[in-house]
Write a structure and sequence with these properties.
single chain; four-stranded mixed β-sheet; 11% strand
Length: 444
C-alpha cells in the first residue's frame, strides 16, 4: 500500500496546530485534541516550520484574548483586541521559539526541547503568564491521575513529538510505503518509544472508562453576583453603598442555606479593604450573623498589604472560622505589576491546600484557573488531599465575551484531572437558570 507525500507542511502543520488550540481553548473545551500540536511540532521538516507550528498553535489557543482586551479597554476596540491577541501570542510563544534553536534537530532532541519548553512555559517564573499550555491535555487523557498524570502526560506528549520526528525521517528515507516506514523504524530500535506511547494510550482509555466524577460537597454553597467592579480610586460614598449592597447579599445567602454551611462568594466582591475601623465595622455585621448560624463565609476582597498600596487578591474567611486565602498569581498587567506600586502580590512558593477546620481546600482565583501550576501546587503539600476546589472569579467586564466560558472549561478540566469537586462563584453576567432550589444562583 503506497501513499503520496503530504501537501506542503509549511501550511498544513501550522493550521492543524492552530485548529487543535482553537477547539481546545474554546467554550467546547476539546483538550483531548492537543496532542495534534505535538504531532505537528514533531513532523515539521525544519526549525523554521517548527516556529510556524508554535505560532499557529498559540494564535488559535489565545483567540479569546481579543475579546478580553476589548472588554477592558472598549474605547480602543477593535484595534486593542487585535494587538493584544497577537502581542500575547508572541510573548507566550517566545520560550518555545527560542528553544527550537538549541542543539541538533534529531528526534531525541526535538522531544527533549518539547519537554523543556512545556516545563519552562508552564512553571514559574515564565508560567506567571503561561496561558494555553498544551499540558492541559492530561485532563482529558488521564482523568483522576492527579500529579502522577501530570508528570506522565508531560513525558508522553514529549515522546509523541520525538516519535513524529522519527516517523518523518523514516518516511523520507524509505520507499514511502506503510510497510517500509514500519520496517525501517523497527530496525532503528524504536520499540521502547512505541511501547511507552502505547502504554500511555492504554492508560488513557482505562482512566476514562474508570473515572467517576466526585460528588459535590453537601456543606458548601456558591453565590453568583452581578456587581459593577471598581476601576481606580473610589469615592467614600460609593464604597459605602457597595458595602451595604454586599452585606444584603451575604445576609440573604446565610438565610437561604442550612446552618453550618461554608459559602463561597466571587473574587473582589467586597472591593478594597483597609486596615481601619470602618472596614472592620462593615465586615463585623456579616461575620456576626455567620457565627450565629455556624456558617463560614469566604468573600473575595482586595486587602491592603503595605504602605505602598500593594494588595492581595484574597478570599477573606469570617464566621465560624476566620483567615485569608490569597491568589498565588494575580493576572499580569491588569493586577500583577511587580515593576511598580499599587500591585497585587503574587505568592509562587505556597504549596498545599488551606485548612478550614478539619478540612483542606484547594483554590484557584480567576486567572489562575487558566494556568498549570497554581492548581497543581495545592496537591504538593502535606499529603492531605483537598476536598474541594474553590474557584472565585470576577467577570463584571465580560459582557458578550467568550473568555469566561473558556476559563470555566479549563477549571473543570483541572478538577477532572485531580478528581475533585469544584465550587465556582462568579461576579458578572450570568446565564438564567430555571431552578427554584437556590434563588441566589440568579443575579444579585
Amino acid at each position: 500500500m503506497r501513499f503520496r507525500p503530504f501537501p506542503p507542511s509549511s501550511v498544513i502543520l501550522p493550521v492543524a496546530a492552530a485548529l487543535s488550540g482553537g477547539f481546545a481553548w474554546s467554550p467546547l473545551g476539546l483538550f483531548a485534541l492537543l496532542p495534534i500540536f505535538a504531532l505537528a511540532y514533531g513532523w515539521a521538516a525544519s526549525k523554521r516550520q517548527q516556529i510556524a507550528v508554535i505560532i499557529g498553535y498559540y494564535l488559535g489557543a489565545l483567540w479569546s484574548l481579543n475579546g478580553v482586551f476589548d472588554g477592558f479597554w472598549p474605547n480602543a476596540s477593535p484595534w486593542v483586541g487585535w494587538a493584544g491577541w497577537v502581542g500575547a501570542t508572541l510573548l507566550i510563544a517566545v520560550p518555545w521559539m527560542l528553544m527550537v534553536f538549541i542543539g541538533p534537530d534529531t528526534a531525541v532532541m526535538r522531544g527533549l526541547r518539547f519537554f523543556i519548553s512545556l516545563l519552562v512555559s508552564a512553571l514559574p517564573p515564565l508560567g506567571a503568564y503561561g496561558l494555553a499550555s498544551p499540558w492541559i491535555f492530561v485532563s482529558a487523557w488521564f482523568p483522576g491521575a492527579g500529579i502522577a498524570g501530570l508528570v506522565m502526560g508531560a513525558l508522553w506528549i514529549s515522546m509523541l513529538a520525538a516519535w513524529a520526528k522519527g516517523m518523518h525521517a523514516s518516511y523520507k528515507l524509505n520507499d514511502h510505503t506503510v510497510w517500509g516506514v514500519w520496517h525501517t523504524r523497527v530496525n532503528n530500535k524504536t520499540r521502547l518509544a512505541d511501547g511507552i506511547l502505547a502504554f500511555g494510550a492504554i492508560w488513557a482509555v482505562a482512566a476514562n472508562l474508570a473515572y467517576l466524577p466526585p460528588a459535590k460537597p453537601p456543606h458548601w454553597a456558591a453565590v453568583h453576583t452581578n456587581l459593577a467592579g471598581f476601576r481606580g480610586p473610589v469615592a467614600a460614598p460609593i464604597w459605602m453603598h457597595r458595602q451595604a449592597r454586599v452585606a444584603q447579599i451575604v445576609h440573604a445567602a446565610i438565610l437561604s442555606n442550612p446552618n453550618h454551611t461554608r459559602i463561597l462568594f466571587p473574587e473582589s466582591m467586597d472591593g478594597p479593604q483597609f486596615h481601619n475601623f470602618l472596614s472592620a465595622l462593615m465586615d463585623n455585621g456579616m461575620a456576626s450573623m455567620a457565627r450565629e448560624h455556624g456558617d463560614t463565609l469566604l468573600i473575595g476582597a482586595d486587602d491592603l498589604a503595605n504602605q505602598q498600596g500593594d494588595y492581595t487578591d484574597s478570599l477573606n474567611i469570617m464566621g465560624q472560622y476566620h483567615g485569608r486565602i490569597s491568589a498565588r498569581q494575580p493576572a499580569p498587567f491588569g493586577e500583577w505589576r511587580p515593576w511598580g506600586r499599587h500591585t497585587a502580590l503574587a505568592d509562587w512558593w505556597h504549596f498545599g491546600g488551606y485548612q478550614i477546620g478539619k478540612e483542606s481546600v484547594a483554590w484557584a482565583v480567576c486567572y489562575e484557573q487558566m494556568l498549570v501550576w497554581p492548581i497543581a501546587w495545592n496537591f504538593l503539600g502535606d499529603g492531605h488531599k483537598p476536598s474541594v476546589l474553590l474557584a472565585p472569579s470576577d467577570h463584571d467586564w465580560a459582557r458578550g465575551i467568550m473568555e469566561p466560558a473558556v476559563q470555566k472549561q479549563a477549571l473543570m478540566a483541572w478538577a477532572r484531572l485531580y478528581q475533585i469537586p469544584e465550587l465556582y462563584a462568579n461576579d458578572g453576567p450570568q446565564k438564567p437558570k430555571h431552578s427554584r432550589s437556590n434563588p441566589l444562583e440568579k443575579r444579585q
